[in-house]
Amino acid sequence: VHNSLGRYCNEKQYSDAFEHLLIEKRIKYEREKYIPISFEGEKQGRNKVDFIVNDRLIVELKSKRTLLKEDYYQVKRYLISFKKQLGLLVNFRDKFLKPRRILNSQT
After folding, report:
1. pLDDT in tens for each of the 107 residues of the chain?
2. CATH fold label, 2-103
3. Could you tell me the pTM of the whole model?
4. Which of 5, 24, 92, 104 to pair with 69, CA 20 to 30 A apart?
5. Per its UniProt record, what Pfam families does this chain match (predicted)?
């Protein structure tokens, strides 16, 4: 995806291309799955994970100059909410693609 599109597309374009590859390779996935967040029965907002691949791996795609701690915390929240062990944080804006592995120590 990075080689084909380059590093200056938006996150949705990368997500669409990544989804196309998953379909092409017949890999099971869910896209933009919502995590309802509530406190004492009232909804407080919703987050959505970009991809859950093979019901095991959370993939969060970004297209920004630099990743922040908040991006890592976001993936960590998703891992805990979905009770998954491994997440990948991928920033397509980097000159060389360097997916970051994030582990959930609570599983």
Report:
1. 665 777 778 899 999 999 999 999 999 999 999 886 766 666 656 789 999 999 999 999 999 999 999 999 999 999 998 999 999 999 999 888 899 999 998 86
2. Lambda Exonuclease; Chain A (3.90.320)
3. 0.86
4. 5
5. PDDEXK_3
